[in-house]
Amino acid sequence: MFGRLTVAVSAIALGASIAQAAPEGADPALVEKGRALAVAGDCTSCHSNPKTGDPFSGGYGVASPLGVIYGANITPDPKTGIGGWSLSQFSDAVRKGRAPDGRLYPAMPYTAFSGVADDDIKAMYSYFMLGVPAVAHDAPKTALAFPYNMRWLMAFWDVLFGASGGKPVALAPQSGIARGKYLAETLAHCSTCHTPRGLLMNEETGQFLAGGKVGSWTAPNITSDPIAGIGGWSEAEIVTFLKTGYAPGKAIAAGEMGLAVQNSFSKMSEDDLRAIAAYLKTVPPRRGSETTPRSGGTRSAPIPAAELERPLDTRDYKALISIAGMSGAQIYSGACATCHGHDGRGTPDKVLPSLVGASTVGSSDPSNLVMTIRDGVNRRAGHSHAFMPAFATELSTQQLAAVADYVSTSFGNPAHRVSEQDVARVYAAAGQSNWLIANAGTMIWTGLAALAAALGWVVARRRSRKGA
Amino acid sequence: MSQYDADVIVIGSGALGANAAYQLALAGKSVIMLEAGPALPRWKALDNYHNIAAKRNWCAPYPNVPWALNPYTPGYIDAHCDPDFQYVTSFLRVVGGSTRHWASACWRLLPNDFKLKSVYGVGRDWPISYDDLEPWYVAAEREIGVVGADEEDQSGHDRGPYPPRSAPYPMPPEAKPYMVQRMQSRLGPLGYQVTHEPHGRASRPYDGRPACEGNNMCEPACPIGAMYSGDVHVNKAVAKGVKLMPECVAFKLVKGEKNRIVEVHYRKPDKSDHVLKAKVFVVAAHGLETPKLLLMSDVANSSDQVGRNLMDHTGLSLNFLADEPLWTGRGSVQHACIVNRRDEPSRAVHSAIRYSFRNLVPNMDVTPGLLAKGLMGKALEDAIRDQGSRFMNISTMSETLPEPTNRIQPNPAFTDSIGLPGMRVDYHLNAYVRGMRNLASHDFANFMGAFNAEMLSPPTGWRNQFHIMGTVLMGDDPKDSVVDKHCRTHDHENLYLCTTGVMPSSATVNPTLTGVALSIRAARQIATEV
C-alpha cells in the first residue's frame, strides 16, 4: 500500500516538473554562467561516470569513513538523472541535501553549498537542464551499513551542522575579497576537506580551514598563519597553484587536490582565482603544532658520494639482486633522481618539479609524501599533464619508508624522520573514522536494547501498582 | 582437491608470457607463471647500471644467476658459425624478460611478409594472413601502448598509410629530433623514405606510465618506466590473481594419455625438483630456451623442426662522421629508419633490408679512436665534442630465411649450477643474406655521399640484432612445422608456444609486437578451451 502510494506521488511530481524543466527561450548567457559555476563547484569530480568518462552521469565512488558513497547521475535524463526536478527541488538538493527521493549524505558538500546565492542556483539549474546532454545511466546506489543506511537520520545531523556555508543571499558577490569568500565558502567547498571534522563528522567551525584528513591524505592548514598555514605564500603563488597544481618552491597538488585543480580550479577565471587567493590571505590564522613552515624551505642535501660510489662486479650476481639494507639515498638514486635530480631540484624548466620547498616534503606530517610515492601524481591542467608513476608495486613498505625518510630529511627538514610505522599509520588512515562513527551501529542497538529494557521495567511497575 | 595446480601454467614471464597470463586471468582462469630468473625492481636495475663498469652491455645490469645463465656467459652458447661471422645474441632471464633491456620498436609485419613463398618464391608462407592478425595487432598495440604515425607508408612505397590499420595508434609520435630532420632533408631528395619508428615509449601518460622525457637510455633500462617492458604485464597479471613463481627453472614437460602434457618439472636454485600439473601448458621461454626445453623433454618434435630454422636480422653496420652536427643522443635511442627496401622485387633474390639509425650519445664510439691517435687534454676534449656531434651509425635489419640447418640444440657438454645443459647453436649465413651486400653497399655509399661523410668503420662485419625467430615455427602441415595457426603444438593439444620462435618469416622488423599479438590471440583461444 505504502509502496504504491509512493509510486503514484512520484509520478505526479515527475509529470509536473517535466513541464517546468524545459522552459522556453533558454538564456545562453545564463547556461554559460551555470557551466562556470558547476566547474567552480567541481561537480564532475564526484558525479562523473568512471566507466565512460562522462562528466555527470554518475557512478564515481567516494570512499568516506561511513563506506563508499556513489555520485548520482545529475544529467537531465528524466528516469536515471535529475531531469524531473523543479528549480526548488534542485535548490533543496544542492543547498539543503534534500533530494526528492530522500536525504543526501554530506559527501555531497551541501553544507558548503548552503550559502550559494539564489541567482547562482538558478544559473546552475539552467545549465544542468539545458546545457548538459541527458545520459541514461543507472548509477550504483549507495548502500551504507546500519545505521547510516537510514537516510532520514541525516535530518538530525542537518539541523546541527547543515549550513556551514551560511545562509544564501539573493545575488552572489561579483568581485574582490567578498567574491573570494563567497566562492571559497560555498562552491569551491574548501572547508569540506580543509576544516577538521568533529565526533559526528561535522566540520569544526572554530577551526575553519585549519587542516583535515581525506582518507590517507592530509588536506593541510590553509589559514593565513605563516607557519601552519599559507600566510607565507604570495597571492600570485596561490593563483599559480590553483591554476596549475604546482607552485614552485611551495606546493605540488596530488590526490584529491590534484583532481580539484584538474576539474575545477584550472578551469576557473583568473579573476575568481585572484579573489579566492585574496580571501584566503584574510582567513583567521590557526596555529598547529608545527614550528617551521612546511613550504618554502631551501634545504637541498644531495646524495653523499659515499652512498653512490659502490662499484658492483657483474660476476657477483647476489649483489645485483640484493636490495635488503639499501639506504634511502640509494633507492632515491635509482627510483627518483632521474626526474627530481640528485639535488632534489627537478629540472630548470620546472616540468619535473623541485622537491625543495614543496609542502609535501617539508611537512612534519608524512602522509602526503608517503601517498604521493605510493600512488603517484596524475593531474591535468590546461594542456599540461603532470604524471608521476605509482611506486606501490616497486617499493616495499620498508623501502618506501626509507626513501620517504631520505626525501623528507634531505630536501625538507632533518628533524622530520619517517619510519616504517609512520607509513603503516598513513595507510591505515584510509579506513579510519573516529570512534563514534565506527561504533554508531553498536551504540544504537545497545541504546534500543536499553530503551526496551527501560520500557519493560516501567510497564511491569505500572502493572504491579495496578495489581496492588 | 583439484587434480590440477592451475588451469594454465605459463613458463616464462617475459612480454609474451605475461600478456598471455594476463589475458587468461582476465578470462577468469587460474594461472601459474614460472620464471627461471629472479625478480628485480626497475630502480635496482638502475642502481646496478650506475655502479657497474660495463656501460654498453645491456645484459650486465641484470643479475646473471648461475641457475639461469644469460648468453654472455662463456660456454653457455656454443656457437658454430662462419669465418666472418660469430653468433652473438642477447636475452634476459629475469621477471619481465628481455624487454627489460629492449629499445621497444613495435612494428607490424607487412601483408607480403606473411606470404613470402607465394609472392617471392623463397622461404615459407604463414598459415595466417595479415588480415587475420590485424585485430590482434590492435590489441597488442593497446596493451603495450604503442606510439606511431598513422599516416605513413611503413613499406616505403609512398602509397599512403600502410600496412592497413583498423584503429589508430594508441599514441601520437613524439617530437621529431633534429637528427631525424637532417636525415630527412638530406636523404629524402635521393628517394629514401625516413619514417617514424613505432615504439613502446609513451608519448603521453599511458596506463600508469609517464611520458618519455628523453633520457636516452632505453637500453639497458628506461629509468622512469615510460617505455613498455614485460614487467608491466607481470604486475597486471599478478594483480588479477596470477601466481608468479620466480627462480623456478622448468626443465621437463611430461606426456600422458592421448599425448597430452600432464606435468611440468622445475628445479630451484637449491637443486630441489618439483612438479606442477595443469590443464594447459604455455611455453613462453624465448626463441632459444623454448626449443631447448622441448628438446630436453622430447615433446612437440614429430616434425623434427624443433630448434631448426633459427633466424635473426643478421646484417651490416656503418659508422661515419657527417659534414654537419647531427647531435645523436637527443631523445630516445631510436626514432626513425629507412623503409624503402622492406618489400621490393629483389626479395626473390636476396634479403629485404630496413636501415636503422642509432641515436645514442656517441662519446664511447669516437673516443677510443681519438685516444689511439694520441690526442690528449683540450685537443681530445674538442675532438670528442666535434666528432660526437657529427657521428652517425646506420645498420641493416636484413631478412633471413628459415634454414633447417640453422638450429639450436641442448648442449650437455656444458651444465649450469643446477645441472641443466647449455646450448649449441649452428648458424650460417646463406647466399640469400650475403646477397644483399651489394645493395647495402650502394645505399651506404649514397648515405655517405649525401653527408660528404668520413667513414669511421666500414660495413664489413656481420652482426645479429638479437631478434630470435623460426625455432618452433608455425604451419598448417604437422610434418614440417611445430605449431598450428593458434600457436598450439601439432603433437600435443594442450601445449601452446608463445614465442617469436613461431614466426616462419623474419621480415625486416623487430618481432616483439607480432609475438605479443600472437600470444594474446593464443590466450583467447586457450580461454575457450579450459
Secondary-structure blueprint of this entry?
The complex is a heterodimer of chains A (468) and B (530).
Chain A: H1 2-21, H2 28-40, H3 43-47, E1 61-64, E2 67-70, H4 87-96, E3 98-99, E4 102-103, H5 110-113, H6 118-131, H7 154-161, H8 176-185, H9 190-194, E5 212-214, E6 217-219, H10 235-244, E7 246-247, E8 251-252, H11 255-263, H12 270-280, H13 305-308, H14 317-321, H15 328-335, H16 337-340, H17 359-362, H18 367-375, E9 377-381, E10 384-388, H19 397-411, H20 420-428, H21 435-467
Antiparallel strand pairs in A: 1-2, 3-4, 5-6, 7-8, 9-10
Helix pairs in contact in A: 2-6, 8-12, 10-12, 15-19, 18-19, 19-20
Chain B: E1 6-11, H1 15-26, E2 31-34, H2 42-51, E3 77-80, H3 116-120, H4 130-144, H5 178-187, E4 194-196, H6 231-239, E5 243-245, E6 249-255, E7 261-267, E8 273-283, H7 286-297, E9 317-321, E10 336-338, E11 353-358, H8 363-372, H9 377-390, E12 391-398, E13 407-415, E14 421-426, H10 431-434, H11 437-450, E15 454-457, E16 495-497, H12 512-527
Percentage of β-strand residues of chain B = 15-25%
The stretches of 5 or more residues of chain A where confidence is low (pLDDT under 50) are: 1-23
Principal-axis shape of chain A: globular
Largest sheet of chain B: 7 strands, mixed
Which oligomeric form is depicted? heterodimer
Distance between the termini of chain A: 44 Å
From the N-terminal CA to the C-terminal CA of chain B, the straight-line distance is 17 Å
**Which range best describes the helical content of chain A: under 10%, 10-25%, 25-40%, 40-55%, 55-70% or over 70%?**
40-55%
Features:
heterodimer, A: 468 residues, mainly alpha, two-stranded antiparallel ribbon, disordered N terminus, B: alpha/beta
How would you summarize what this structure contains?
The complex is a heterodimer of chains A (468) and B (530). With 468 residues, chain A is mainly alpha-helical. Chain A has helices at 2-21, 28-40, 43-47, 87-96, 110-113, 118-131, 154-161, 176-185, 190-194, 235-244, 255-263, 270-280, 305-308, 317-321, 328-335, 337-340, 359-362, 367-375, 397-411, 420-428, 435-467; strands at residues 61-64, 67-70, 98-99, 102-103, 212-214, 217-219, 246-247, 251-252, 377-381, 384-388.
